[in-house]
Amino acid sequence: MGHAQSSELHEHTHPAAAGPSSRAFNLLIGASTLVVVLQGVWAGLFLREGEGYNEEWIDVHGDGGLIALGLAILACAIGLLQLRRRRSLVALALVYTALVAVEVYLGGLVGETGVLAAIHIPLALAIAAVGAGVFVRSWR
Fold first, then answer.
1. Domain residues for 104?
2. Is 6 part of any domain?
3. 107 neighbors 120 (Cβ within 8 angstroms)
4. Left (φ > 0), alpha (ψ -120 to 50) or beta: where does 50 sit?
5. Which residue from 65, 92, 113, 133 lies 20 to 30 Å from 52 (Cα-Cα)?
6. Is residue 7 part of a domain?
7. For residue 11, what pLDDT band results from cuts at 50, 70 and 90?
8. Backbone angles phi, psi at 58, to 5 degrees
């Protein structure tokens, strides 16, 4: 087997990257997902059964949602510009961003009706999982 054939075989059998990568995209998606996970921590600081809510942590929680959304939007913008060949990754990031936007909207309504918390909290867990999936996939 010649050198050209050997390297050609290596290209086909080596688990190469799925396509181009963007460090900025990876870091923004990772930061957004981290903030989504921290949302659970911050919620735990103000959701106390039988106790009043700590307004400061409610504000931190709300601001965290907006920060997670902003980071996700920036990541999508970078993805659309730099990762055109990785359509499925960018599409998944857009879905993640849309879910974060819905979650932020629902979070703003939870105070008006506690029933929405039954949607808001499980959706947050699903969003964290989707965000983690986008992040892991972005490094491949």
1. 22-138
2. no
3. yes
4. left
5. 65
6. no
7. very low
8. -65, -40
